[in-house]
């Protein structure tokens, strides 16, 4: 069995051949576990949680596979990413997260059960949470610039009219 822990986790979590009902049940159960881990992590936001994959699984009363899924999910929000592609249960990992980045990633994932956790109220004021939420939502919005008219100065900076320069 040469598959890495991450490959094993993804084979189960994203199995195209699985029964849809079973997969929905799997994710519903996982999201509840994920929520419980985040409640504990966010309750003590200054603590730098570190240990092997196996130690963290035991600390949060989870299986190693579930912990691998959690590590996969939080990795983009960590100050120092974990070697999730190659880790085994004895790999040293951390859960030292960037608070703002974690909040924004939860918003980006549309995980309202996570970014609405009451623990966030102790970390950020309501104004800060609204600002982070808005920043994240706007980061995905594409805005078109004002269209250059034929007789406007050319945006290249030549000083000519657009129609006589780059608009040809």
Automatic annotation (TrEMBL):
Domain of life: Bacteria
One protein family per Pfam: SEC-C
Residue ranges, annotated region (Disordered): 135-161
Protein name: SEC-C domain-containing protein
């Amino acid at each position: 069995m040469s598959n890495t822990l991450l490959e094993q986790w993804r084979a189960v979590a994203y199995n195209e051949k699985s029964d849809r009902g079973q997969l929905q049940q799997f994710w519903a159960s996982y999201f509840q576990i994920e929520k419980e881990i985040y409640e504990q992590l966010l309750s003590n936001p200054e603590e730098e949680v570190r240990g092997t994959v196996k130690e963290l699984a035991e600390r949060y009363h989870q299986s190693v596979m579930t912990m691998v899924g959690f590590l996969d999910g939080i990795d983009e929000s960590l100050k120092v990413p974990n070697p999730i592609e190659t880790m085994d249960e004895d790999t040293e990992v951390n859960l030292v997260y960037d608070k703002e980045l974690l909040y924004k990633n939860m918003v980006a994932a549309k995980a309202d059960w996570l970014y609405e956790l009451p623990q966030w109220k102790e970390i950020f004021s309501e104004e800060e949470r609204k600002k982070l939420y808005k920043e994240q939502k706007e980061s995905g919005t594409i805005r078109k610039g004002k269209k250059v008219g034929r007789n406007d100065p050319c945006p290249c900076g030549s000083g000519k009219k657009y129609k006589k320069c780059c608009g040809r």
